[in-house]
Amino acid sequence: MKSRILGFECLSCGEQADWGRIRYRCAKCGSNLNVVYDYAALKKKMSPRRWSERPADLLRYRELLPLEKEATLPLSVGGTPLFQSGPLSEKIGHKALYLKDETRNPSASFKDRASSVVLLRAREERAAVVAAASTGNAGSSLACLAAAGGQASVIFIPKTAPKPKVAQLQVFGARVLAVNGNYDAAFDLCAEVCEKSGWYNRNTGLNPFTREGKKTVSFEIFEQLGGRRPDWVLVPTGDGNIISGVWKGFRDLLSLGWIDRLPRLAAVQAEGSNAVARAWRTRQPEGPGKKWVYSVEKISATTRADSISVDLPRDAVGALRAVEESQGTAVEVSDGEIFEAQGILARTAGVFAEPSAAAALAGLVALKKQGLVANKERVVCLVTGNGLKDVQSVLERLGEPPRVEPRWEAVQEVLGALSQKRDTAVIE
């Protein structure tokens, strides 16, 4: 362990901490921590070829994970497909477009990457209970993987969490506590209970190992592109931890000398939950040639894309550093644009994304309109969660389902519509 992990570094003040000394936040300023590896030593032991000889799950990257012991996963996490869709590329007008489909993970969410590493760390620390606050995906991920590993879990959710996501929590046997408030209220209560009870806290933007799990998606993208980096990665952004994880993964690759620069990262936010994008847009220079100063203000989130609906992003520092260091950007899209992107993904690529997961594609459309993404650039959109997790939002937009026992005349109308390449007529 000492030969490959040096310790922690604070994302805000740069304070260094020894490995194992701090579990969560920086002791000096209270900000988020990054795990620091000995890249000089790892360069001598690692190669992309060695990765390719291992099973296709996130433990193939074990040298760059904060685990002290040999570990196994009760369920296979990671190894999700990166692919292109001709109809989607034609619809969007971007040939070099790739989808990273994280809906293939065990709980149908990107969050399984974080939960896997956190649960393995909790096992090493002999934690009796692992807890998390969640709008649904992080909680269902933790509940799923904890159940498979025989670990007890407690999930704090806002009372407005979508019922399909709550059903996942319950069927996996997690103890579910609904909070009379939003995600931020659930986050604060979870942190308080964990501190008082000694439970292991999985919360994103607090536990540094969530970022370590999420960064493995960057390693996979690198491998799946044949050892190349993309030009852009578009990331649905709520609390900021996913984009900071993507950034950490590509930073690791850069530190190893395997890529020449970071891909540009775009934090895609809903207009009704835009604290990170607002801080990016209103940033001020600290002085000539110096770093930018950001003001992250709490908002009142209103978006229907519940997985990125956050009043106060808990990993805003990491998200903003990711955007700045990669020379990327932050973009806001409306709920209408998100729902339109959801439909496009389903009808052209066969991917049913929940609204928050479709935000990445909506962000690409917006950035292309702004002229920030060139047609020749390789773009990866992260599809972070399955649409069945929030099917109600789709049903509300689609209206009443088709009636049964169709008349032959109605069938003929459908056939005529299809022959003319129009939308299918409603069968009555």
What does this structure look like?
The chain is α/β, with parallel strands linked by helices. The protein folds into two domains: 5-54 and 108-208, Rossmann fold (3-Layer(aba) Sandwich); 82-107 and 210-393, Rossmann fold, CATH 3.40.50. It is 39% helix and 15% strand. The chain contains 16 helices and 15 strands. It has helices at 39-43, 48-52, 86-92, 112-124, 137-149, 163-171, 183-197, 208-214, 216-224, 241-255, 275-281, 316-325, 335-349, 355-369, 391-398, 408-419; strands at residues 5-10, 16-18, 33-37, 82-83, 97-101, 129-133, 152-158, 175-179, 200-201, 232-236, 264-270, 284-285, 292-293, 329-333, 379-383. The chain has a six-stranded mixed beta sheet, sandwiched between helices. The longest helix has 15 residues, at 183-197. The protein is globular.
